[in-house]
Amino acid sequence: MMDQKQFDKIRAVFERSGVALTLVDMSLPEQPLVLANPAFLGLTGYTEGQVLGLNCRFLQCDDDNTATRAEIRAALAAGREAQVILRNHRADGSPFDNLLFLHPVGGRPGAPEYFLGSQFELGHCKAGVGAVIGHTDQLSRELSRIGAVSEHMEMGSRRQLAEMAAALVRAWESRR
Ligand code: FNR
């Protein structure tokens, strides 16, 4: 079990980060949000009090994300990282396409105690491949700060995350 000190460290990293970050408790049946940082609240337009305790699917409203949701459930059940694109809605109802990064945190391999989610809004001006690589670089740094990956994350796996995200963005752009 993660101790309070480690949890507080994650909270401190979240507070300072420029990328949207959320933490979900995987030990609870509804997989609720236990942390949502200022960048996430800025992106979605919700307050912390409105989102903590909810499963993050509330952002989908009644969008049909059937295949993507199945992909997410499989990754969560296996305790492995994933990157997917989901249609979401802000508090004011406006839609956006969310490139979501999921990473296991704490617990045992295959059975993480938490999952970290990072949200990147596709489609707003300057949010092309360059911006998503900036996002994955910062996300990789935050993951190593909280110890979710070995202290000095292999350059290889950092690059792999950037390449995966860039490929998803290109595929998304070509569908528009
Ligand atoms: C999520 N989920 C999620 N979904 C979404 O639409 N927008 C989001 O930003 C997030 N963020 C997020 C972060 C973390 C850490 C986790 C673990 C999950 C996915 C959502 O909560 C849920 O897992 C998926 O919708 C699949 O499950 P259902 O809805 O098919 O039961």
TrEMBL record:
Keywords: Chromophore, Flavoprotein, FMN. It holds the Pfam family PAS_9. The keyword Transport does not apply. The keyword Flavoprotein applies. PROSITE patterns: PAS (PS50112). InterPro entries: PAS, PAS-like_dom_sf. Residues 6-79 form the PAS domain. Transmembrane segments: none annotated. NCBIfam families: sensory_box. This is PAS domain S-box-containing protein.
